[in-house]
Each structure stands twice: as C-alpha cells, then as structure tokens.
Amino acid sequence: MSEIAVPTVGALTLDPTQTEWTEPQTAALAQLGIANAPRGDQLVFLHQAQKTGLDPFAKQLYMISRWDSQSGGHKFTIQAGIDGLRVIAERTGRYEGRTPIQWCGEDGVWRNVWLDAKRPPVAARCAVYKKGFREPLEGVAHYSEFVQTKKGGDPTHMWATKGVHMLGKVAEALALRAAFPQDLSGIYTPEEVGEEESTAAAGGPGQTIAESVAAEYSQPSGEPMVSSAQLSEIAGRLKDLGMGKDAALELYAEVAGREVPVTRLLTEKEADAVLEELVERAKPAAEPPETNEDGVVDAHIVEDEPASADEADALWPEVAQPGSAR
C-alpha cells in the first residue's frame, strides 16, 4: 500500500503514530454522537481512519450505532461513501478501474442500462481490475438482500426512487472490497448496511449518532445548519404529534426536496419550513358550522364594540403607541 500524505496542521489532524484520540478529537467525536461508544470501538475507528487516510471530521468516514436484535444491544459499524472506497482503492496503486455496472431481471439477461421504471432489477454486478490479477474481481448484489425497507415493508424513499442506482453502488462496493480486502475490510457503505436501522431516531435521544451518513446525503455547502433551538423544537413537536421516525423523514424529504436521513442534516431554512409544517399539522380541524333543523346555518349578529386601550396595545403594538389617538 502506498504511503498516505497526512496534513500536519489543525487540532483535529490525525497523526499516523497516535494510539489514542487526543482531547480535541474526543470533543469532536462528542459532536458526532459517538463519544459514548465503547473504547474498543473508538480505537478500531481510529485505526481505520489512520489506515485509510479518510478524515472522520470531514465526514469521509463514519461510525454508526445500530440495534442488533440477536444480541439485544448496540453494535457499531464503520462506513464510508462509495467515493471514499474509490479513494482508498486508488491510493493502493493497484487499482486499474472497473467494468460498467450491469443489471438483470428475472430472465437473467445482463443489461448496461435498466429501463423498466415499474420494476426494480433483480441483481446488479460490477467487477474491479487489480494489478497482478489475471481476471477482474466481481461483486454481485441481489436486490432482495440489500433493499432497505420501512417498518411496513415498503422500500425507503431512496430505494423506492433510486433503487437501480443504489443497487449499483452496492455491487461496486462488493467488488472493491473483494479486490482490496486488506484496505476495506470492516468498512461498509450505507447502502450495504441500511442507515434506516440506525439507533438515531429523528428527533429522539441519540440523534447525533446519525450525523454519520453517506457523503451524498451531506448538507448543502455554505448554508447554515439547523440550530440547537430548532432541533429541540422539532423534537418536541414531533413527539406532541406522535410522529415516528419514518413519518418525520418523509416530512423532511417533502419539505427539503432531497433525502434528509437525520434531523441534524437539515439547513436552517429547511428547519424553519419543517417547523411551519408541524405547526400547521398541530392546528385542530375546523368544526362545521351549526345548522338548524332545516339545514340552515345558525348565525348571531354581534354589535362591534370599540377595543379598549389595553386590547389595542395587545392587538396592534406597532401602532398603539402611548398617548396616541385611537
């Protein structure tokens, strides 16, 4: 493996020789929501960051906490976007490209382009060329094994709208890992493990863990992100409305016009829009007007009375100045 150039500036810069997280790095890990991870998992994360040269503080490498029903506890997995895996492969000096991704249906015929918009492909495949190997190393991903679903069994938003693309990335990741097991062992893409099963529920405790998401889901560059006050208010309103994680994520995608897998990846403007929608949903439905036996709407004529000074001050504070005529 070729030597990785590591910057020598910055309080968060990783030193290839360090054996523990430094104090500033530990503080940054707390912001990513993984400061409470077992020490062993944190050291493995440090090792993978040093080995791959990917920067966890620049969101190139992630550690995700997921609930494991078999063990009855949380397990941590290390993830990187498909671009991160490509960078690692390129740095080895032995990566010589890949074959075009192909998809097939139930007929078993492989196609370079999947054109059936009504049905997802059954499988996707990709092969990676590696210097010194006679044949390319292939990865085959079956849709039924990797499609990520909601609790009701329906595909998640990304898999429902971009299933072909998602399955293709899984196939490429499998091929890259087969070609470079030493460099990519233990590092998976979100498309492979399913970030929907992360313990970070929208608006709930532990939400910061899900900062670790695929690079393609990261926030729009240059835009201010959701504030702590907005996060708190969103969480409270979601709870009051009884909205679960799936409903919250669907709302985020609807308002933002993009996939937002965790609340912390909303921009400030998007968070304001989400709050406006939550306020609207909290409003009680208008009751139908009362009608008499003939079906005619009952109405009462009420004489308008002039507002008192105190009432005017409350209703129109910008115009009801002390001493002004009303």
Automatic annotation (TrEMBL):
Q: Name one Pfam family in it.
A: RecT
Q: Which InterPro entries match?
A: Phage_lambda_Bet (IPR010183), RecT_fam (IPR018330)
| Ranges of compositional bias, category Acidic residues | 304-313
Stretch list, region Disordered? 304-326
Q: What is this protein called?
A: Phage recombination protein Bet
Q: Which organism is this protein's natural source?
A: Streptomonospora halophila
